[in-house]
Amino acid sequence: MTQKTFILLDKLSVSEIKRGSKLSVGLDFLRAIATLEVLISHIRNLYFVDYNQITITSNLFVKFLYFLTGFAHEAVIAFFVLSGLLIGNSVFKKLQQHRFTWKSYLIARLSRLWIVLIPALLLGLIWDLAGNALSRGESIVYAGRLGTNIITEPVVNSISSYILMGNLFFLQNIYFPTLGSNGALWSLSHEFWYYMTLPVVLMAVVNYRKIKTFLIYLAVLLFLFFVVNLKNDPGLLVWLIGSFVSLFQKKIKLPQKHQSLFLLLAWILVIITLIAIRLNIIDSYADIILGLVFSILMLVMSFHQGKVKENIISRFSLWFSDFSYTIYLTHLPFLVFILSIVIKQSRWQPDTLHIFYGVALVLITVIFARLVYFLTERNTSKLRSYL
């Protein structure tokens, strides 16, 4: 690829996201919080009755707990923006340096995804088949009679070799259902195709004078939009918004004395937007609006230069975000299996004892995911180097 093909990218201002920088730690913190939100929301949804089914005296804490555990979808929007920023930053940087190749890009993306996805699919199958067999198919959760929107039909309906292969190649929620009880896998297929879309668009742009190459990329883009059906996916716009944040990091400068104030205001904007969405004040285009707000937060984070002084929050953020992908892919079938053993008739009331059980479930699931991480996600760089 010649120098001229990159002429439209030569003037891009792309910052490197350095490990340990204030931006990196801020992104780790956001990823950790979003992962924890998904986990506790799913535990609340699976194990505890809906708010209108509470029969015990509901206090302010219970109301706050139910309100707090209702942002799982919004947490996924945060993941999309985060992913867009990180992947977009890498793609823009390599294009600018004339180092982008499809081979290296696909190896980087697929090694990152498959090193956890393949074990997660197999583990999910084991949990689902074992749980269904132990309960002889009579468990209310595996039968789809739990009363939660996470599992609405018998789990065995979503288990087959075809569905397994569809999930392996990121076609779930497009042409196949998610495998078994692992409904969280829906977002992964969308994200994978977002990964493909950005470089296809950019390569079409930089090759606009090469008609044959341009038409090939245009055909691929049409395939993504109409066959993969990205034309009806608002998440793509959210992801792309995040990817373009990296282009503005060096363009906007703030005096150091104002940086903390702007960061606080950005977090307040995020919280207000989340509350407005939860109360249905923001309804139409909620995902896109939230994606824009998260992008503003990340842009403001990028204004903070230098390294962060280590503290308990930065250490937790780094530790938890390191295996957030593993938590996301493995937690649901594990929780459903445990549920099939401990809940026979109906979900729990949010009394003190059962809230304690819920906290224990969070800890047990995190420990389980951490063990899986040591065997999988932790070795991503080794796998990538081998390939």
List the helices and strands and how they pair.
Elements: H1 22-47, H2 60-68, H3 72-96, H4 102-134, H5 161-168, H6 186-206, H7 211-226, H8 234-243, H9 256-278, H10 286-302, H11 312-322, H12 324-342, H13 352-375, H14 380-386
Helix pairs in contact: 1-3, 1-11, 1-12, 3-6, 3-8, 3-10, 4-12, 4-14, 6-7, 6-8, 8-10, 9-10, 12-13
GO molecular function: acyltransferase activity, transferring groups other than amino-acyl groups
GO biological process, one term: polysaccharide biosynthetic process
Domain Acyltransferase: 26-369
Descriptive overview:
- The chain has 387 residues and is mostly helical.
- The protein has one domain.
- It contains 14 helices and no strands.
- The chain has helices spanning 22-47, 60-68, 72-96, 102-134, 161-168, 186-206, 211-226, 234-243, 256-278, 286-302, 312-322, 324-342, 352-375, 380-386.
- Helix 3 crosses helix 8 (234-243), helix 6 runs antiparallel to helix 7 (211-226) and helix 6 crosses helix 8 (234-243).
- The longest helix has 33 residues, at 102-134.
- It is globular.
- The two termini are 23 Å apart.
- Residues 1-5 have low confidence and may be disordered.
